[in-house]
Design a protein that fits this description.
This protein is an alpha/beta fold. The protein is 37% helix and 18% strand. It has 2 domains: 7-49 and 318-427, Aspartate Aminotransferase, domain 1 (Alpha-Beta Complex), CATH 3.90.1150.10; 55-315, Aspartate Aminotransferase, domain 2. Helix 4 packs parallel to helix 5 and helix 11 (319-338) packs parallel to helix 14 (411-427).
């Protein structure tokens, strides 16, 4: 980390020294497309990595590389300590009561599939994970495919029924349906904390209260919220929460599932293999307690250690400062984009109660063509349905362009985006 903290108090709020932060990210110094400065506006897809995380990964491989839990030699002890230390950091980062409630997965998709597997394979027919023909799972129309497809597959296997909240024209959940959708037949409600397309921050606590009153469990996909501000699982009140390392300055290949301890005790293993066992005989096996029951085989050890370094980095910078900085960027970007004739912002058009991903369409220009023109100017955005095809259909479009901001982005980069869009309009004769 640079000497001192890049977050500082100002007027009662924590502001970021973005110039200093950018120096921590080597990739931001490079040029693209014939020497243009890189303007990276695709952090909702994957974030860039600071030198502190890169150095931690290098040091692990150079100095501590070994398998965990098994070896009695010094390298094995060091690797195990670093891996389990990362679990403790992840638990503290989200306010978990105990690190044994934290399961390492390779991403949020695997975390959600793990929970879906448990609902489809729980042996206690009367327990909270029991799922029978006629039971219902409730999701939302704005979900990433990772929080949709696993529940479709589960319903196909079990005879359960999949239902969902629709989305209003302004990109919020239509909560007028809540009383009918969440009912005594509901076994699980699964929803995004923050939409990867619309930026909408959903009223998770209200939905959790309704679900628990009906006897249902709640899973929250927090992939887009945990990197950008304080998320406390106790405050959310949900039963399962998933997030991923690569969207929060950490490596790819590592994610987290948090779940309440009593549920983890009931959940069957997701994968079988080494390390997740208590004893093995030819006839049958018994399994280790959580979290190891769900971590079969050699885990992504270095990636977990890198996630721990990313958590240290974000904690040092300050999550409150990150959230406020992103809101400043939104207050700059949203009105500037709204002034462009023919541009339609999808979802909330004010910065309140929304995240830093902005998706939009532009009359007469396909999102892929727009993103290519922007890329020629060094501006990296995302184009397509962003793994949220049903949401785009509900909004009456096939695809959109998405710009997403993070702690290292600047007001000048917002201006580069806006000017790039105006250039695209001129280029295509708009």
């Amino acid at each position: 980390m640079s000497t001192g903290s890049p977050g500082a108090a100002a007027n009662g709020k924590q502001s970021l020294d973005v110039g200093r932060i950018r120096k921590d990210f080597p990739i931001l110094d490079r040029t693209v497309r014939g020497g243009r400065p890189l303007v990276y506006l695709d952090s909702a897809n994957t974030s860039q990595k600071p030198r502190q995380v890169i150095d931690t990964l290098t040091e692990f491989y150079e100095r501590h590389n070994a398998n965990i839990h098994r070896a009695t030699h010094e390298l094995g002890e060091e690797a195990t300590e670093a891996y389990e230390g990362a679990r403790l950091k992840a638990a503290r980062f989200i306010g978990a009561a105990d690190e044994t409630e934290v399961i390492f997965t390779k991403n949020v998709s695997e975390a959600i599939n793990l929970v879906a597997y448990s609902f489809g394979n729980a042996t206690a027919l009367s327990g909270p994970l029991a799922l029978r023909d006629g039971d219902e799972i409730v999701i939302t129309e704005m979900e990433h495919h990772s929080n949709l497809v696993p529940w479709q597959l589960l319903c196909e296997r079990t005879g359960a029924r999949l239902r969902w909240f629709s989305v209003t024209e302004d990109g919020r959940l239509d909560l007028s349906q809540a009383g009918e959708l969440i009912n005594p037949r509901t076994r699980l409600v699964a929803l995004a904390h923050q939409s990867n397309v619309l930026g909408t921050i959903n009223p998770v606590q209200d939905i959790v209260a309704r679900a628990h009153a009906a006897g249902a469990l709640v899973l929250v996909d927090a992939a887009q919220s945990v990197p950008h501000g304080r998320v406390d699982v106790a405050d959310l009140g949900a039963d399962f929460v998933g997030f991923t390392g690569h969207k929060m300055c950490g490596p790819t290949g590592i994610g987290v599932l948090w779940a309440r301890r009593e549920l983890l005790a009931e959940m069957p293993p997701f994968l079988g293999g080494g390390e997740m066992i208590e004893s093995v005989r030819m006839e049958r096996s018994t399994f280790a307690p959580p979290p190891h029951k769900f971590e079969a085989g050699t885990m992504p050890i270095a990636q977990a250690v890198g996630l721990g370094a990313a958590i240290d980095y974000l904690t040092d910078v300050g999550l409150d400062g990150i959230r406020e900085h992103e809101h400043e960027l939104l207050r700059h970007a949203l009105p500037a984009l709204a002034e462009i004739e023919g541009l339609r912002i999808l979802g909330p058009t004010a910065p309140e109660n929304r995240g830093s991903a902005i998706s939009f369409t532009l009359d007469g220009i396909h999102p892929h063509d727009l993103s290519q023109v922007l890329d020629d100017r060094g501006v990296a955005v995302r184009a397509g349905h962003h793994c949220a095809w049903p949401l785009h259909r509900a909004l009456g479009i096939q695809a959109s362009t998405r710009a997403s901001f993070y702690l290292y982005n600047t007001h000048a980069e917002v201006d580069a985006l806006v000017e790039g869009i105006r250039h695209a309009k001129r280029f295509f004769g708009g």
